[in-house]
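Just wondering, can you check both lines?
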Amino acid sequence: MSVNLDPLIVLDLMRTCATDVVTPYFRNLSESQIWRKNNNSIVTIADIESENFLRRNLLNILPGSTTIGEEEAENDPDIMNRLISDKPVWIIDPVDGTSNYAQGKKRFSMIVALCVNGETIGGWLAMPASGRYFWSMKNQGSWSEGKRLLITKKKNYEPKMLSGSLGSKVLQLKGVEGSFAKLYRQTCCGADYMDIAEEKLDFAFYRGGMKVWDHCARNLLVREAGGFIGELITGSVYRPLYPPLNGILALCSKKAFNSVSKILNSSMLNLN
């Protein structure tokens, strides 16, 4: 099924969702509006209401499409099978970085992707608290506020010249500290990918959380901006239907992949 879609319509929808649903709850959540899911991760009333808002309106934007939302999948894991149908699928992460959001920290994002026949063809990311909005479409580039994002690749790609974002366990591994210029833990994947696309960050690695809402839109954003994303050991490209077994490494350039992946893979050999 071919899709003819104005990406700015989706971006405007996300702005409305941020204004009407997500922002009003920010730093205004009661204890009863925050709870734990079955996997022990945090969810809030804002996650539920914003996903419902986005799902309802995205289906109206593209008749005949369907959805896979993070909270929707929590209640019905079988909806993942929608990826193998011939219908366009909207993939929704209503609040990425929910822990940050619930603590009143600004580094949280909203993410929407559009997949057709198991391939991501559109991605939209937003950081409502800082007013950052991004979109990308297959073969149309990555954009923010009317400006096309192009990673210049005019730098030294030696590991000691690179800054990266890593999870807490990886940050503590022997061989990681001191191997790079700067390391961060942002606890918001969307923020990592947006920073890479804007050349504020050189790489980010994720050893878990390979769900489609974690990486579909973000993968497209970085690739269309000229970056590279691959499975840690093989460098194989990310595909929604076939999650990478050894984690995913996103970088500003493919030139940096071998050296960064070698350090991380070596350090992780003894990590359970």
User: Anything to note?
Assistant: The domain at 7-148 is CATH 3.30.540.10 (Fructose-1,6-Bisphosphatase; Chain A, domain 1). The chain has a mean pLDDT of 91. Residues 118 and 251 are 23 Å apart (CA to CA).
